[in-house]
Amino acid sequence: MAAATIALNRFGLGAKLGEAPPSDPRSYLLNQLSIYQPRPAALASMPSRTQIAAQIGDFIDEVREDRPMRRQAARMPQGMRSPMGDEEIPENARRFIRRSIAEQYMVMVAGRMNAAATSNTPFAERLVHFWANHFAVSADKPQVIGMAGLLEFEAIRPHLMGRFADILLAVEQHPAMLMYLNQWHSIGPDSPAAKWVARRGKQRGLNENLAREILELHTLGVDGGYSQGDVTEMARALTGWTVAGLVKGPAARALSGNAVTGDFNYADLIHQPGERTIMGRRYRQQGVGQARAVLADLAAHPSTARHLATKLARHFAGDEPPKAMIDRLALAYMGSGGDLPTVYRAIIDSPEAWAPGPVKFKTPWEWTVSAFRMAGAAEVDGQIVAGLLQQLGQPAWKPGSPAGWDDRAASWAGPDALVRRVEAAEKIAAQAGAGTDARAVAVRLFGETLSPSTAQAIARAESPQQGLALLLVSPEFLRR
Amino acid sequence: MSMIDRRIFLGASAGLTAALGLPRMALATASGDRRFVFIIQRGAADGLAIVAPTGDPAFAGIRGDFARDSAGGTKLDSLFTLHPALAETGKLYAAREALFVHAVASPYRERSHFDGQNILETGGARAYQRQDGWMNRLVGLLPPEEGKALALTATIPPALRGSNQVSSYAPSALPDASGELMRRVTMLYEGDAQLHALWNQAVETRAMAGDGAGGGRRDNGAATGALAARLLSGDKGAHIAFIETEGWDTHANQRGALTRNLRNLDALLAALKGGLGAEWNKTLVVVATEFGRTAAPNGTGGTDHGTASAAMLLGGAVAGGRVIADWPGLTRSQLHEGRDLRPTRGLDALIAGALAQHYGLEPKRAMAILFPNARGVAVEEGLMRS
User: Fold this and answer.
1) What pLDDT, on a 0 to 100 scale, did the predictor assign at position A251?
2) Phi/psi at B245 (5° precision)
3) Is A466 close to B184, i.e. CB distance below 8 A?
4) Which residues pair with B167 in a beta bridge?
5) Considering CB atoms only, which of A403, A410, A451 is closest to B156?
């Protein structure tokens, strides 16, 4: 591939309808770091977190309290997961989730796709998607459905051009993450609240889910040098990090204080008192500052630099990331105090990312975005996009695990997956109509690297739509 | 459970392996119509709840509220009780077609799902050390017929990745592409080795496709079991299948989630047996998870990541009706790191042993190829009816 093609496809998300290849690919990418918009027009009016959290709060209340709806649940043959990931969910509550929160999910899926499909800074958009996958939450859990998009819009987008430490703190304090990894109801065993519930004969305590994933997935990486002891200490440090307005009744004041519903709140009453030792460092702080100090140190740790550098190199230079590039990115990270634009520039400056042959098989999301950009899609319908991504094997914000989607071809290049892309391509091409000349688009997209076989297949197509469908599933278009 | 709903992709093209003349080692000697199904429980299933050691004096104390959850379950022997949601599985046990192995674990001793699953599926010493999975290596040990392998997932899982051809099927709700486009795509991929191979395989499976096994939802175990049975039936069907179940990561309010998951698994197994008919007698099903959960409940009505768990061997070919365990006990000092069930048996030796006996493979050789890391470790003997 020529440099312009690489800038458009490997760094970016594919050319938009009618978009000319950049004459100076490097400046084209660098410029995007300056003109990137955290909140583009496509995301101007997203659902409000306060409102969604209030609905989740009502929902949790319905499921938890001994209400008629709950008794009705006992008669139900099958159910979805409750907010705690567990019991049968009453029909009313289920209907409520479907209608209300799921609608908001669709609005956000549409917003995400519209932002990507219309963006003038597709390299920056790709980085948004990269970090959203790095800090994955999965909207399989009902309480995350309405929040997963907000994590990306509120915690990742505003800090994309900041320091990694900023994204990290914003993500770990975001209600979506606190709910997804069970942090919001993790209680220090020696906290005042734990003692209080113990007197009432109940047992509440620590949940180390978020603590573990912070160390394993978000910062140090699985070989980053932490132990089970560090995980437990981290879990203790994080107690008190919760979300306001989710519970009602006597616990409400303890958990929510005066914070606005749906906001992060630090609740001292559930915090495990005392100093902590994590990765050999002591943290004598009390309160919210304790875990915050740990996060700051984790962000500055060389293991974190290496972990992030490896993932970024894999994303831009191939499934087996070149060691020289990993070293370079890790150095840029450590040398700049985790300044992300410095790392992004190091990616642009890496010859490995400009290797001429395609280095990646597109994920379903990447493929769909590039197809929509090429077809000139705008104002897409959330339900259609969500359904399409589901069928292609990568439903939006639903990787099913906090590790996010795998970034290797082996996960995406399968026989069944390929047939699905062909089916989807025919559908997308039919909707694009006869106005798009796939022959011209192919040349603009791939220039001289367009293979004769693809050019011929498109030229011989029996209709413009069929030509477009063939372009969408051509070897050139499936890879980047 | 993976998305299963409408159309069927049938069979696989492990035969390609032979056609391409790839090397084949230690060919199995048994005759060619055995079936093998591996069901992975993603998320770390709580073995102490599934096959509960109710006869252990420390059980009630450490399990707290959870101790009473086994009431009404099939009594397996003086020590173990099966979870009551596994009623059909209990019947298989009574018919000596189910065998449980307890306090068993892969070589992995940390507590990350992703690494744990990777090791369980690849058979590597460390996560991501190996690029291919032990099920794919198994395909290489079998004659073409018996080596036809299929994953009931949208993409190939790590257990089946590797140099031997395998297939995957998960139903699509997209409209079928037109025949004309399919034909042109076939031509388009002729010069691209990777896409050509994938496409040929897809077309081949499509040609064998049936007309839907009824709508199956991801949490509909019965539909999944019935579909798997269809895909495994007849000479043209796959002979090896990979099925995933999920939702076992019960950090909070475990009771409801676990009961629901076990009911699904129970229905899946019953439907699989029902659908396979006489072929059930030549079938081995292995159910395993990446690691277990803490012996004691956590503060949110659930359990956290642990170490050893329980595994199941099912099928007409299994020498069932018993629980195999070197029971390590549940007092604090007996627990691994003071919190988890201590592993006393290896999943590697169990799976390799069962497969060696099932397919008539030389045990040492099977172990060395399927789980090279455990080379030299003796496989479990006497798991299958001879």
Assistant:
1) 77
2) -120, 150
3) yes
4) B150
5) A410
